[in-house]
Every structure is written in C-alpha cells, then in structure tokens.
Amino acid sequence: EVKLVESGGGLVQAGGSLRLSCAASGFTSDDYGIGWFRQAPGKEREGVACISSIDGSSYVVGALKGRFTISADNAKNTVYLQMNSLKPEDTAVYYCAADKAKVIRETINAPPARAKDLEVWGQGILVTVSS
Fold it and tell me: CA-to-CA distance for 95 and 49, rounded, in angstroms?
C-alpha cells in the first residue's frame, strides 16, 4: 500500500520561505510521479508541481515558476516543494499525490475534478502566509 505523509507546513510571513516534504512508502513500481496540489479557502484544488520517478523530470505550473521548485531525494523516498517569496494568496492546504508519472503530469494542469481520480493522496498540510 502506497502511503504519503506531508510535513513542513506552518505559519510564515509574506516574503518568507517554507519547504514541504512528502515522504512516500510502499511503491511497487518504478513508474510513478508525485504531485503537489493545493486548495485555498473557498477555492477549488489546483495543481502546483510534479516530478517523475522515471527520469526525474519536473514541472511547476506557470504562475508559480520562479518561486516554487520541486525536487526529490530518492534515497529518502521524499519529494520536496521549496516555496520562496511566499504571498498571502499562497495560503492553502497543500497535498501531495501519487499515480503513474504520465497521469500525474497530465493532472497537474487538468481541471480540478481530474485530481480526484489520482491513486493516492496524503492527508494535507496547512500553509498560512501572513501579510
């Protein structure tokens, strides 16, 4: 059974940084991707970034490029989301999710409803950016 556990959230002032971690376990295939999604109060869930286990390729949605980066430590089975220059509008519950690499990549920019079909989700972690 694949499990994902997020950590690293909390309260930060605008302009600050946070690094979220997604610790993964239970994968039985080498073909998987990890994606980060977020859901702000009163808004639909949206894709943030993803990374592939196949070739390490990564993707950050356009609006967040330059501030957010995604990386992986394969030895620790952990994916990180580094968030810099945080803004109050980045306040959200952040989730990591796993599925086949191609599916994750397609879902990051897909309509929010598509994300519901992803295979595994973490419990989510709150990030609050104060102004």
Answer: 11
DSSP 8-state assignment for residue 65: B
pLDDT, position 28: 83
The helix/strand/coil state of 89 is: helix
Query: How buried is 106 (Cβ within 10 angstroms: 0-12 exposed, 13-18 middle, 19+ buried)?
Result: middle
Element (H, E) at 102: helix 101-108
pLDDT at 4: 97
Report d(CA 82, CA 97) in Å as an integer. Answer: 16
Phi then psi for residue 102, to 5 deg, are -65, -40
SS3 2: coil
